[in-house]
Every structure is written in structure tokens, then in C-alpha cells.
Q: What sequence folds into this?
């Protein structure tokens, strides 16, 4: 049974007509990946509203327009090796998997084991486990074993760009990361050309905190 297909295409057409997501490859990936499958059962009916939603353990899945903007800024190409910090539900990772096929790979790191385990099961159920690998660890340290990465995307807000992530970004690579505190951050695009790193601010965003050695130290530290 095909579920939610009409709702999904209405949502994506809405993003298209509002005009701030113009990258057709990203929009088409959003038409293929079933967002409701990544949500807890009681949230599924809201999957195709353009809104962030709770996924358990105090964490959230980003709003679809934010996901579209991030996919566009990342400019993913088939064959890219990608690192994501903050797998959460795994939705963003599955979309990136669609865009790096064939030949690419997405490594997505999650610090909360129950969320990481659920994301892994979702990848297997939906057939993304060949292109998305879920790793349970502190992603503020990056994932040195597969570095360098063509693209890095961080789904949680950091006080500054973690050094290990800069070091693990490949030449000509692009990294997206929300930087700042107090419930409001700047989405920063970091690009590498040889030894030099350039930062461009893309605008204000709100993400949950990156908790870890190169992030915020613990959850009780209110941002
Ligand atoms: N991209 C996700 C949304 C992620 S929400 C999706 O599509 O559903 C941000 C996630 O970052 C949360 O699940 C949180 O637990 C995780 N996180 C926070 N700090 C982290 C760290 N140091 N390493 C890995 N994951 C972290």
C-alpha cells in the first residue's frame, strides 16, 4: 500500500513554489524518501507538515524546508563520502544516501544509543543500509577511520567549529554546521581549498546542542 504519497508531493511542491529550495535533485530525493517512516508512530500523521517534530529523548527532526536548504548548500554529488554528526531519526542521512548513489557513502554518527539503533533499523527496513552506515559515538570528534570527507554536515549546534571536523574535511570539501548558543545559531558553510578554510554565514537557525568533547559539555548546560 502506498501511504502518504499525495501529502508528500504536496509538501515538496510547496517548497518548490516558495522558491528558497531550487535544487531539483534535493527536491526529488525528498519526493522519494518516506519521512513518516523515520518518525515515532504517534507522529506519523504530521510527517508532511513543514515543521520540526520530536523523535524521542528530547531530540527533533528538522523541518523539511531546513532539510531542503541544507541539502542544497551541501551540493552533494554521486560518489561523495559524507560524514553526518547527529543521525537522529536517520531521515537526513537517507536523503543524502539517495544523492551520493552510485558509489558514495554516508557515515552518520549518533551519541544516543537508542536513537542510533532505531536509525540503523530504519535504514535496513527501507534499503539504505548499503549507502548509510550508522555509528554510535561522540561525533564532535569526527570519525577519523574513514576521513577525509567530501562533505560534513552537523545537525546539532556547536560553540565553534570542532577542530577534528576541520581536519577531516577533504580538499575542495564543504561542511555545514550551526555555530552559536542561546537557542539561536548561524548556519555556517566551511569550505576548504588546500590548507585554507573559508567560512560563510548562511543565516539564523535553531538546532539542539552538540553534546561532546568538542561541543557543549553536558545537557544540563542550558544554551
Ligand atoms: N539529522 C537528524 C536530526 C538530528 S537532531 C534527522 O534527520 O532526524 C540532532 C541529533 O544530534 C540528536 O539526535 C542528538 O542526540 C545528536 N547529537 C548531539 N550531540 C552529538 C554528538 N556529539 N555526537 C553525535 N550525535 C550528537
A:
Amino acid at each position: 500500500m502506498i501511504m502518504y504519497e499525495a501529502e508528500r508531493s504536496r509538501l515538496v511542491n510547496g517548497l518548490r513554489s516558495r522558491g528558497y529550495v531550487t535544487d531539483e535533485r534535493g527536491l526529488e530525493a525528498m519526493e522519494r524518501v518516506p519521512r513518516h517512516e523515520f518518525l515515532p508512530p504517534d507522529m506519523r500523521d504530521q510527517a508532511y507538515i513543514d515543521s520540526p517534530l520530536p523523535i524521542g529523548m528530547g531530540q527533533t527532526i528538522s523541518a523539511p524546508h531546513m532539510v531542503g536548504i541544507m541539502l542544497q548548500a551541501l551540493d552533494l554529488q554521486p560518489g561523495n563520502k559524507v560524514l553526518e554528526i547527529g543521525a537522529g531519526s536517520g531521515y537526513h542521512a537517507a536523503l543524502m544516501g539517495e544523492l551520493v548513489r552510485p558509489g558514495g557513502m554516508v557515515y552518520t554518527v549518533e551519541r544516543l544509543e537508542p536513537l542510533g539503533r532505531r536509525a540503523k533499523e530504519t535504514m535496513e527496513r527501507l534499503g539504505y543500509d548499503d549507502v548509510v552506515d550508522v555509528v554510535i559515538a561522540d561525533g564532535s570528534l569526527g570519525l577519523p577511520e574513514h576521513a577525509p570527507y567530501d562533505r560534513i554536515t552537523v545537525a546539532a549546534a556547536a560553540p565553534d567549529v570542532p577542530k577534528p571536523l576541520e581536519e577531516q574535511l577533504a580538499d575542495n570539501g564543504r561542511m555545514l554546521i550551526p555555530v552559536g548558543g542561546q537557542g539561536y545559531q548561524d548556519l555556517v558553510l566551511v569550505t576548504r581549498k588546500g590548507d585554507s578554510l573559508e567560512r560563510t554565514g548562511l543565516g539564523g537557525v535553531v538546532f539542539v546542542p552538540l553534546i561532546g568533547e568538542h561541543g557543549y559539555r553536558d545537557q544540563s548546560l542550558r544554551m
About this structure: The mean pLDDT is 95. Residues 55, 59-62, 85-86, 88-89, 91-92, 109-112, 115, 138-140, 155-156, 208, 210-212, 215 surround S-adenosyl-L-homocysteine (CB under 6 Å). The longest strand covers residues 169-179. The helical segments are 5-18, 24-32, 64-74, 91-100, 113-126, 163-167.
